[in-house]
Amino acid sequence: MAWVVLIVAGMLEVVWAYCMKVSDGFTKLTPSLLTLIFMIASFALLSYAMKSLPLGTAYTVWTGIGAVGSFAVGIIFLGEPASAMRMLAAVLIISGLVLMKLSSA
User: Fold this and answer.
1) Per-residue pLDDT tens digits for 47-76
2) Which residues contact 95 (CB under 8 A, 6 or more apart)?
3) What pLDDT does 105 receive?
4) Rg of the chain (C-alpha set)
5) Cα separation of 40 and 51, whole Å?
6) Most buried in the list 22, 36, 61, 64, measured by CB within 10 Å?
7) What is the rounded distance in angstroms from the CA atom of residue 31 to the CA atom of residue 27?
């Protein structure tokens, strides 16, 4: 169950990062409030997952999901570039996440 909670926490990190981007430096009220709500929810779920997962594993997976998810959202919704080097970086991050999961099994 902790892994499911951790994955949801990582996905919420992507949501709050996107909301922060569209808040335009916290000058738009709704995305600013959504950023705070999703940030609190993400941290709460991360905290819950850490009750049974090692700190290094939980935090690395959470930030990795956030990094790769934000990268994908940036490309798909914000028109950010998808260069070969950026794609390779995302693959390396995903490889690290898989290794972290396998090492804690």
Assistant:
1) 999 999 999 889 999 999 999 999 999 999
2) none
3) 65
4) 14
5) 17
6) 61
7) 9
Q: CA 54 to CA 91: how far, in whole Å?
A: 23
Domain carrying residue 88? 2-103
* Parts of the chain with a pLDDT under 50: none
Provide the H-helix boundaries in 1-105.
Answer: 2-22, 29-49, 55-78, 84-103
- What is the structure's pLDDT at 100? 83
Question: Which residue shows structure tokens 């996905």?
Answer: 11
Closest by CA to 53, choosing from 11, 14, 103, 94, is: 103
Structure confidence at residue 101 (pLDDT)? 81
For 2, the token pair is: 């902790």
- Structural domain total, the chain: 1
